[in-house]
Amino acid sequence: MTIKDIENIFEKTSPYMYRILRTADILKWQEENSENEHIGVLDFSELEGFEGVLIAALEYNPQEPELPEGCMSISPYYYFSNRYYMKLSNDLRPAEDRGEIRILRNSPLKVLANISGLGYYGKNSIIHNGEFGSSMFLYGVGINVEENESIEWNGINNVFSDCGSCRRCIEACPTGALDESGLLNRGKCIRNYMLEGTQVPEEIGKKMGKRLLGCDVCRNVCPKNNRLSARERMPDYDREIFLIRNYLDNREKGLKRFINPLSEWIGRNYARTKRVLYQCEIIDGNDKDV
């Protein structure tokens, strides 16, 4: 599979940008910075046997539709990332099965995006660039150079962030999970608890509002996101799927008729029954506190 073949698949999905790095350059960068504990432990084993990696950013529209009464909300990122990942993986899987490429499932994509020059870290730990802001989905593919194919490799970017003195995300974070270093305090992050499905401290749960998945407060205040996307926005919420009482009132039986279509929106990993029920309990409690 050539780079042009991969481009054609991206074009059918969303506006995109990409960079290409040599595996040898990535491993050399890691070795040269191995004293940094965050870099030394990075796992690039998925690139073994491949000359390089193509790391892409695909744009999505961050505008969220109006939330129906009694429903829980999701960040548009999770809706679009599920759709993009499924489409790209299905389209690229035949080439992966032939051993021509490798879809990166466990590699540090944000790191690859940063060192490739595809984007910079914000102080909210999210990657952004001048074209898409932070409204983008990252996707990586291990590649080999096809015979008679010419590839223009990108060099290693060593600029971590371009935020300068801006502190908007730090000041806006409802739980104080951010600081000047650009490192996220996961113990204070609303979204992290949603993703991990672990016990939520009461003070964090109260600030989750009606969110099932995602926070977006820091993303919404970022000046890098001051443009309107021309992409189609996330569709209107399906009230039956996102109605909180449908989950709480049917916890003993019949949940599959809600969980299964919910997984079509956000993916099966995030639509796990226990996680959704727990989040619904938090949201229900927040409604009663209002």
Strand order of the largest sheet: 1-2-7-4
End-to-end separation in angstroms reads 55 Å
Give me the count of strands. Answer: 8
Number of H/I helices: 13
- Summarize the main sheet: 4 strands, antiparallel
pLDDT < 50 runs, ≥5 residues: none
Q: What coarse outline follows from CA principal-axis ratios? A: globular
Strand content: 5-15%
Radius of gyration: 20 Å
Helical fraction? 25-40%
What is the overall pLDDT average? 93
Structural class: alpha+beta
Which H/E pattern describes the elements?
HEHHEEHEHEEEHHHEHHHHH
Kindly describe this structure.
There is one protein chain. This protein is of the alpha+beta class. It has a domain at 3-143. The protein has 13 helices and eight strands. The strands form three sheets. A four-stranded antiparallel β-sheet has the order 1-2-7-4, with helices on both faces. The N and C termini lie far apart (55 Å). 35% of the residues are buried.
Which descriptors apply to this entry?
alpha+beta; 4-stranded antiparallel beta sheet; 8 strands; globular
Task: Offer a concise description of the structure.
This is Epoxyqueuosine reductase QueG (Queuosine biosynthesis). By secondary structure, the chain is of the alpha+beta class.
List the helices and strands and how they pair.
Elements: H1 3-11, E1 16-22, H2 23-32, H3 37-40, E2 52-59, E3 73-74, H4 76-97, E4 101-103, H5 109-116, E5 120-121, E6 127-128, E7 136-143, H6 168-172, H7 190-196, H8 202-205, E8 211-213, H9 217-221, H10 239-242, H11 244-248, H12 256-266, H13 273-289
Parallel strand pairs: 3-8
Antiparallel strand pairs: 1-2, 2-7, 4-7, 5-6
